[in-house]
Amino acid sequence: MYLTACYITKNESRNLSASLATVAPIADRIVVVDTGSTDDTVEIARRCGAEVLSFPWQDDFAAARNFALDHAVPSETPADPDRWILFLDADESLPHAEGLREMLAGLSAVSPAPEGVLLTLVNVDDDAEGLEISRFHALRLWRQRPHYRYRGAIHEVLVDTRTGRTPEPCAIDQRFLVRHTGYSSARVRSKLLRDLAMLEADMQAHGEQPLTMRYLADACYGLGRYEDAVRAARKALAAPVTTVAGDRDLYDVLLRSLQKLGRPLTEQQDVVHEALAHLTGTARAEFVGWQGRLRLAAGDAAGAHDALAECLNALQDKAKREGEAGSSGAEAGLPDILAADAQALFSLGRQKEAEKQAMAALASNPYQEKALAVLAECFPEAEAMVSRVLPLYPAPEKGASFLASFAERHRIVPLRTALAAHLSLEEREGRAAVTACFQQAAADDWAGLLQGAAVIAGEALQELFAALVALPEERRAAEPDRVAEWEAALPAALRHLLFCMRAQQTAEAQEEATFFTGLEALSGFVTEQQVLPYVRLSESFGPAALLRTAHWLADRCMEAAAWELLQRIPADFLAEDAQAADFWLLTGRVLWALGAEGAQECFERAAAAGCEDPRLAFHLHWARKEQEA
Alpha-carbon distance 435 to 429, whole Å? Predict the structure, then answer.
């Protein structure tokens, strides 16, 4: 048995060595195709014993992967059933690969002999204590054949070039998990923006293909473009296309998008009924769980518990799940299902059972807030809850910080007071004003509480303003009285800016300072799509305000929105060198981040205008290197 491991890379120094460390003990050969790294990715690969090849990036993942396969499996290679290909990304690893070679060696004795092996790919969030996001089966291992090649510029698929279909039959092995960190919180946005740009380019070239719609729905959901996600998911579900992953993820994205948009429960229930009619096995069980959560939202606690219990019984029956193909987010979704069942049981007066389910949810995901809310009701003594929950967090001080924020958001005075002693010294100092307010509330010191609350009232208004900027139009139309009540709590100037934003009217010149105060309030609360209507108001205040707002957006990785504003700046604004230097440097940075043409020209214009920003030399160097390549 002979195993060749393949990778394609670009600036993967952060991930590659960890991945190769898990693969090197089981691979006979490692092939790394680098597509233009500017860090030490190539050196890391060579130090780990890999053969390194260069391939110019062409906005086509299949082309790069096939270049690796052409090198690993030349077309004239004779068929050999005991030679295998393992293809991983640099942010994927095989943490428990022992026994994999023995498993492959034994597959030739199976009838019919599998052509490939579906491994379980587990998406984990390295920026949230390694919590699982989702898992599904993916073809990462297959017999070395010259006619197995990738198709698709993005979300590429391995096919048999003779039939155009995925290699078959494929075995399923749940022992060897592929750990994927590429969708961790701090990295996912830039990856989704890249994916979206490539998908849109593919649609311009080839139209709206069913598979493209699947990937578009996922990218739009991750970027907060929920209406677009709904449209793409519905189109993909309507197309007569069958994939290895099945339709489970499409229904999941569709439901989550409808929830984010605040669509009626009846519309969400229709999607659940459709999913239940089409899905089988574990995937179907998950949507029984969705049904339970919708019943809970509708106030039917007994019906919710019945559905959730059915779902949990199916998910926890591991023997039933063995050998199933297709995508499954069951493991990642289990804490949410347990938390919903805890809520249902508490509503039914079954407190002990509710406490047990809530603790089970937190054991899987200690950040599950619905489970925490149930426990806060179950434990009259806050210290008792803290002693039960705090050990669940890998870093106790970090856990105490999260729990303190949870208690503040939900105004749980005893819990917040009990947590003060568990915070780090830095946290205690930073939260001193809030801690004092909660202590005053616990002591019924209402005069002191009012004085302290005034200090943090401004922060609450900022959060309210951000929430109203991000509020979907459907929600405004559905609850106009409540929205009017929320808006009435804002200062008049901020209310007027909200009106101008929604009516697409020009703001008044004297409101510029208020506009930027509101802009700072949005930081960290809104997505790029949500902030666009607001930042367009900056045009009311002139080109300098447009440029300042574009800087704010670019600094928060909202380059597409920044690019829209930069295009609105008139040419005569660039008559002064200082303004021109600032404009051209920022425009170059934005185009560079978007992967668009023209970045080098912008950097050169910034240099010609006398730009002294130290970042310019860096950008010019790499832009020219890329142009030469």
Answer: 9
